[in-house]
Amino acid sequence: MVAKATARSAAKAATRTAARTASKATAESAAKAPAKTAKAAAKRTAKTAAKRTAKTAATKPAAKAAAKTAAKSAPAKAGAAAAKPESRTALVRRARRINRELAEAYPYAHPELDFENPFQLLIATVLSAQTTDLRVNQTTPALFAKYPTPEAMAAADPEELEQLLRPTGFFRAKAKSCLGLSAAIRDRFGGEVPNRLEDLVTLPGVGRKTANVVLGNAFGVPGITVDTHFGRLARRFGWTTSEDAVKIEQEVGSLFPESEWTMLSHRLIFHGRRVCHSRKPACGACPIAPLCPSYGEGETDPAKAAKLLKYELSGGAGQRLKPPPGFPGKPAPALGAE
Questions:
Q1: Which residues share a beta bridge with 317?
Q2: In the chain, which ranges are E strands?
Q3: To 5 degrees, how large is the angle CA 253–CA 257–CA 262?
Q4: What is the pLDDT of residues 103-152, one digit of tens each?
Q5: pLDDT tens per residue across span 255-306
Q6: What positions carry a catalytic annotation?
Q7: N or C: which end of the chain has fewer CB within 10 A?
Q8: Are 150 and 191 in contact (CB under 8 A)?
Q9: 269 vs 128: CA distance, rounded Å
């Protein structure tokens, strides 16, 4: 009997403990529930208020102006995002495609100085500074008729040489260079124009540009000719940002195989003289317009751009009195026959 009573007492005690625990848990849950409900309600209220504020603000002039400004700035931001820096691989591919397109546009590209041997090309290139190739080509026939070799020119009377070179401008300085380089070729190189860059640049009046012209066109040694046209187009094409000729030569040269250097120079110079002019490029008549990041700097209307074309592209003469076979333009006129 005692055991049964004890069991009943224990059961009652357990029941009371469970009831108290459940009551306490219920109370705690009840306390937490209002807090959660209050937070959720606050969030819903805040969202509703924000929507109402935005809806109201949209009807105000200031909000409309802000919307217009955002709409206008969107294309600019999209364009800025699209104008990501060009990768090295993409730059090389675009540069080489430009070269191929120019090769198709000017299959007859060539050096625009008349010459028959390395010495004539060297002298003509020195004379081309600060003047046109046309003026040089009009001057050299009489010059080479009188002084056909380095030995003959080295022994020339300075005043007589100056008079022959007068049409090219800066004739005194040019006469001095011609006399000096002719004597150096005679005395140091056995009367033969050297075929190495390091030797050519030691001659009076001869720099890297002149040396590369002679190497590429008289000796078949690849070289890049960075004249004013080449430098301008290389920058417009995004191949370089430099103004320094040596740096341009190095940066552009790294984009192409050496075998392309000489003809690349001719093509860019041809294009610069005929289409991509310094002051007003004929963008609307440019065969590589889709590849050029500078498109739009010049005239984009095709009809107006066509009027800006020069030399054979405009139906005129080239710069050589004796153009090579395949040149589609007319021969240039002799001195005094313009």
A1: 330
A2: none
A3: 70
A4: 999 999 999 999 999 999 999 999 999 999 999 999 999 999 999 999 99
A5: 999 999 999 999 999 999 999 999 999 999 999 999 999 999 999 999 999 9
A6: 209, 227
A7: N
A8: yes
A9: 14
